[in-house]
Amino acid sequence: MLSSGPHTVPRPVLTVIKQDEFLVVSGNVSANNHTTIGIFADSQGSPIRGTLQWSSYPKSLCVEFPYIAALLRNNTIEIHNILDQKLLQTIPLNPSFEPRGMSFGHGIRVWMEGMAQRLSRRQWPSKKKQRDEQEEEELQFQLRRQVARFSTLPARILVYGRDSVMAQIVTPLVVQVDALLDTKNFEEALDMADQARNTLSTDNHTHVERMQSELDYIYQKAGLLYLQETLFEDAFALLSKGNLDPRVLIYLFGDLSQSSWVEEVPNVLLFDGIRSLLETVGKIEDVVARTMEKNYSPHLDEDDQRSSPIMEMRRVLLKNAREALERYLQVERGKHRTLIGKGNAICKVSFDPKKKSLNDF
């Protein structure tokens, strides 16, 4: 600490955010003033981004982009988002721990059950024709191995005290966003997902694979929830963003579905949570019927429900769904263009609006 009259000026704290970007912390500490500000600066010393504020002066800082953790002198850890400078979490520490500082470490890995539950995948549908037993065992082994790899996360932020060390783990994106989707905070959930998608680093292959699986789960779940609300255009855009196998969506349109397609290569693999939500959604006809019942049935008698305006509304919703599917399949055709003519079942989803049928590419 540096003394300056009635004020005590702590020594500045500096940390590296990423290449050519730093965070400098300074402030005054007195009986009536605990002003502590963090300023982001580039390699020339020019301010960038916004500023950070803490309730107490940091002892040390640790960065796990896009988050920054600060160990404060009041025995708490505050987590901020670097991108928007928002305070995300405050973690109180037991004073008996006597926290001394933080450091960025490697080699500590922790199993996250919440990740395993969300990223576990199985073949869909369950009742598929009998496959080669060895092939089935190999597929199950690969899926278990993948979820184990994704669900064992590195604990990089270490907090050391007088005689012990604690590891801080960032709550995975899929766990945070899934909770928001469950409470229908769609805008906040998708903002978080899009932000993570746009800032995804390609430095670590396993991290990229895991994050892509998290994002796929998020967009697929959001898409199905939008589908339940008959927001077909937005729903299909999200499902495409989440890389849902087009055969799954075609299955929802009973008159277009061809059961033989899901038996072909490649296997249709779905996250467990998406499988259960898909069962709740049902066919497109069911989605429209539930919407009509929810919005109109409580206010109309049985004869009114069979009236022309009500039937016309139902017809319009089904037509909107079909048109949204057509646009979705055109997008998917572009995504899978390199597989055309190679016997891949995903390519059998080209929609012919004139014939109102699906044909091979």
From TrEMBL:
Gene Ontology annotations of biological process type: autophagy; endosomal vesicle fusion; protein transport
Subcellular location: Cytoplasm
Keyword Cell cycle belongs to the record: no
InterPro entries named in the record: CNH_dom, Vam6/VPS39/TRAP1
Assigned GO CC terms: cytoplasm; membrane
Coiled-coil positions: none
Protein's UniProt name: CNH domain-containing protein
